Structure formats: C-alpha cells, structure tokens
Amino acid sequence: MRLNRLFLVPVLAALSLAAQEPSLAGAWTQTKADDIAAAIDATVADMNFIKRPIARGRLAKVNPAYKKVAITLSDKEVLVKFDEREPIHMPAGGASAPWTREDGDKFQVAAQVGKDQLIQTFKNDEGERTNIFKLSPDGKSLTMNATIKSPKLPKPLTYTITFGR
Fold it and tell me: pTM for the full model?
C-alpha cells in the first residue's frame, strides 16, 4: 500500500501543475495595437498613384484593430472569433478547410496549435494572411502578429495587436 501512495503523489502533483499551465483558450480584450493605418500606408507607399488608394482601402477594410478575440481549442476543432464576427472554424492538427469571409471572399484556412502559440493561415488566389498568436510566459497576455502577403503588394503588411484576459 505504501508503494502505491509514493507513486500517486508525483502523479497528482504533475496533474495539478498541468491544470495550472496558462492556455491560449479563452476570451481576450485588446490592450495595445499598432497604428494599422500607418502600417498600411507604409506597405502601399511604393505603389503607383492609381493602385495605391484602392489597395489602401481594401487593406483598411479587412484589417481592423480587433478589440476582442476568443479562442476555443478542442481535439477536433480550433475556433477563433474576432469582435462580433462569426467564429472561424478550423480542423485541429493543421489541415486546411474552406472558409468564406463576410464580404464573400473565399479562403482555405488552417490552424496549428503549439504549447504557447497558435498559427492561423488564410490562403486564396490573391495572397495569404498569417496570424501568429503568442501567449506570454505568465499567461496574462496574448500577442497577435499579423502578416499579409500578396503578389499585388510591393511588400508584406505587418502589425501587432496585444490582448489581455
């Protein structure tokens, strides 16, 4: 009987620590955001004067400074919900799935989940977007680094939004 108790103590301690590890899952509220309009201006600055305002408008429309993000993780699915938009459903394990944005643009979307980060990718014929969500070591903040690439853009658009619990 004593042998069983000696075995159970470390197992219970390990389970207790695992339950306390910070998680990406949950509801997050914006605490800081880059100046996305300035990042867009820097990205389109080298475009010709006819294409520049069109690109600026399209990028501004689909790259708001999200105020809230909610992440749900399960063995089968990853859900990411920005503000009041519909949640984005992605299979767990990195496989891609079709997704249609509110404006009708169609993408293949995928999620790769690690211990302290989530990489979300959107791809279509016009380009790709990658959101890398990184959890702080203390689990109190979540940083989203967004990168948008397109053959129509002279360089990628990048910006960061930080969220807190």
Answer: 0.86
Closest CA to 76 of 62, 89, 66: 89
Helix 51-62 / helix 36-44 crossing angle, nearest 10 deg: 150
Q: What angle do CA 163, 142, 162 make, to 5 degrees?
A: 40
Q: Which CATH class is domain 22-164?
A: mainly beta
Give the percent of the chain with pLDDT over 70: 87
Check residue 20 and give its pLDDT. 56
- What single-letter amino acid sits at 86? E
Can you give the residue ranges of every domain in the chain? 22-164
Average pLDDT of 59-68? Answer: 97
Q: Contact 130/117 with Cβ under 8 angstroms? A: no
